[in-house]
Specification:
single chain; mainly beta; 12-stranded antiparallel β-sheet; 8-stranded antiparallel beta barrel; 1% helix
Length: 342
């Protein structure tokens, strides 16, 4: 595995003949999350995706507080915007695999920021090829990496300094159509003082494993590939994760039993357009948003996607950590969650 991911985006003006060789669903996307190291609010998520064949670039910003989740989504024509921009959002890859800068100006969330992201661990990445139950092929490159975020974050006009908050990034490029037959989806990023435990796990509705990829990424520069994940999780009747244990085994033989407190609210990725809306042409300079109250009236069952990026606190054998536990259970009545950790 190469130690460097090709960071260049397909962000130049794409003419029809240049995009002709790409699949219609081809995308180039990134997502960042930012939060205090002690897992207290606020939780900030933002991302951007390029869809060259559809001449579309779109992005989102999500702010979760103890009482509400605020969402903004923005979209425009790729050929009509400057590289590295979409509506109120802009980004710069300052040094590939090491340093990014992201800024967000006025938008429906009432949140703005100017943040610099710096890597604290090496990145894990690989090429993923999965044949879906529909017969369609999913083929994409996928990266995740732990870092620090620093800069300024302003909410409703009140500015605060962000000093080395935890921030995980995810990069993917290709065609990702993992639909049909899935039961459980987990994208897991547990941050500890000297390492980050990151993996993607997808299981079928009968509990079989469709995909597992990831590694324990150490701040000393080493990577230890994850070879097995077992779980015993507690979900409520709205498909929301409350707590549980994940046990990770690595290629070196290390075993990580990690307990999770997922009781904080928010992180519903429907607010970022994850209900099948990415890549849909909406014309130039489209901006929209809304607020989800975190009073139980909005749940994984009421939204158009159950995918949730929950800010969690973790405990690994007495060592505290924090990070994002992304999860989704199918809403099919034929599925029941099955623990694999006994």
């Amino acid at each position: 595995m190469s130690t460097r991911f090709h960071e260049t985006f397909h962000d130049r003006i794409i003419r029809a003949e240049e995009a002709a060789g790409l699949p219609d669903r081809f995308f180039d996307r990134f997502v960042f999350n930012v939060h205090p190291t002690d897992a207290t609010a606020p939780s900030v998520l933002f991302g951007l995706g390029l869809h060259p064949v559809r001449d579309t670039v779109d992005g989102f910003a999500i702010l979760s507080t103890p009482t509400e989740q605020r969402n903004a989504r923005y979209s425009t024509e790729l050929s009509a915007t400057a590289p590295g921009t979409c509506g109120p959002f802009s980004f710069e890859v300052v040094e590939p695999n090491k340093t990014w800068r992201a800024t967000l100006s006025d938008n429906p969330t009432g949140m703005t920021f100017d943040l610099t992201w710096e890597a604290r661990t090496p990145a894990w990445w690989g090429d993923i090829d999965v044949t879906n139950s529909s017969g369609e092929m999913t083929s994409f490159s996928h990266l995740f990496q732990s870092g620090w975020a620093s800069g300024t974050l302003t909410i409703d006009g009140v500015e605060q300094r962000v000093e080395r908050w935890y921030s995980q990034r995810d990069r993917s490029r290709g065609v990702r159509t993992m639909a049909g037959g899935q039961g459980l989806h987990i994208w897991y990023q547990a941050q500890f003082e000297d390492r980050s435990v990151g993996f993607l796990l997808v299981e079928s509705r009968d509990g079989g494993r469709i995909l597992l990829e990831g590694a324990v990424m150490h701040t000393d520069g080493t990577l230890d590939e994850i070879v097995d994940v077992q779980h015993d999780l507690v979900f409520d009747d709205q498909l929301d994760l409350k707590s549980g244990r994940v046990q990770v085994t690595t290629a070196s033989g290390a075993v990580y039993p990690i307990d999770t407190d997922a009781s904080a609210g928010g992180g519903y990725m429907a607010g970022g357009g994850y209900g099948g809306h990415h890549g849909k042409p909406l014309g130039r300079d489209h901006v929209e948003g809304e607020v989800y109250p975190l009073d139980g009236s909005v749940t994984q069952r009421t939204l158009d996607s159950s995918l949730t990026d929950r800010l969690c606190s973790f405990d690994w054998a007495g060592s505290p950590g924090s990070g994002i536990f992304e999860f989704a259970l199918t809403r099919s009545s034929s599925y029941r969650y099955r623990a694999t950790l006994v």
